[in-house]
Design goal:
Elements (H helix, E strand, L loop, with lengths): L24 H12 L17 H5 L6 H6 L2 H9 L21 H6 L6 H10 L2 H9 L5 H15 L5 H7 L5 H49 L5 H16 L18 H5 L7 H12 L17 H33 L2 H14 L7 H22 L7 H12 L7 H20 L1 H5 L10 H33 L2 H6 L6
Helix pairs in contact: 1-4, 8-10, 10-20, 11-13, 11-20, 13-18, 13-20, 14-15, 14-16, 14-17, 14-18, 14-20, 15-16, 16-17, 18-20
Length: 488
Amino acid sequence: MCSAPLSGRPRRFVLKPRPLPPRAAPTRRCAAVVRSRPLGREAPGADASGLPAAWEEEIPSAKCQTWRRVCPRRTLATQRTGPVSPKPQDPPMKTKAAPRTPLPILLSLLLPRQNRLRTEIEEALDTDLLKQEAEHGALKVLYLSKYVLNMMALLCAPVRDEAVQKLENVTDPVWLLRGIFQVLGLMKMDMVNYTIQSLQPHLQEHSIQYERAKFQELLNKQPSLLNHTTKWLTQAAADLTMSPATCPDTSDSSSLAGPSPNEATNNSEPLSPTMVLCQGFLNLLLWDPENEEFPETLLMDRTRLQELKSQLHQLTIMASVLLVASSFSGSVLFGSPQFVDKLKRITKSLLEDFHSRPEEAILTVSEQVSQEIHQSLKNMGLVALSSDNTASLMGQLQNIAKKENCVHSVIDQRIRLFLKCSLVLGVQRSLLDLPGGLTLIEAELAELGQKFVNLTHHNQQVFGPYYTEILETLISPAQALETKVESV
């Protein structure tokens, strides 16, 4: 079979270059391959990133600089499949924690001059030596425990002697060490409290000087900074001038021999700076919250004064409730301190919401107190309250919340008189002659009076010089020279 005749012109074989893909094709195909192919299944001839290894070899560098710079092969694979996990390494070696010893706590209980005792304790409780003995099984736990207990008995406060003696009878090493560290923690707290108590006078002195210096800086910038303080003291002096010399509710203590705090406070002597300042502090417990002309020297203590005012009001209602309740139940129930404490706890807990819901709170108090009195009388085999007496008791208790109530007014005046006596004579001396109706709340009055005295005393120490200058203009110079406000 003959093939077709060839043309006269010989055929030329030309090697054509392999066509290159479009410029954008690698980027699209690269993304498509990574998105479409699941993890763990790479294309033939592809590396771990899922891209053919020949792509970068086939594509000239001059024509794919943009693709290489924007979308490198490794970066694209990492964005899709996540970061490549590093090669797993061996876990770090675990080191044993240092054994816990009582050495640091015992050393913290020593005074700076006890150098010999410090050296002895460091030698007896050397941590490295104890660790070596424990590794070789030569650690004498009972001997060390006895040594630690002897040091604790030597260094502890008297209040911890009983706890240390109890540890000497413990034989179980685990419970013994646990008890030692527990008592050492208490001894450390005792040392901290002692340090704070010993430094308190120095801290208080520096606090007084610091507050006075800062206030003087503000006063130099604002000369009118004491305007409200001057107005406050002027009103206190006017109250002392216009008020009667004695209160009508102090007649019950007039039969006592000797001068009483009430007589010492409410005398007919001329005005003195101390009495004017005490009256000013008492007026702060009646301060209207909407009145913005609060004394500048007491702005830092305004929140504390409001808390004291709230406690004063609560004590007034509590004392009034106890006074009214005692008139219905007699001295049988109120001769029991347990019954009185129970009524005080009930009244105090129910008066917590008095400011937000006064009517509901006092109604609940009247119901609970009446029920408690009725049940206690029945338990003691006495005649219980009749329905009329119960209704009368509840009605009188509900009226106590009103300021115009006579019982509320008298109790409020007597509590303020006690606070005034506490400022002049001190809390403990004022407690010796409590007005009638306040003996049932003696502990609460002592706490309130001590807080009030501490606050006013600190304020008087800081701003005493400023008060003296203002009061010298309010009273006669002769009286100002006789008594001056105590200052530091």
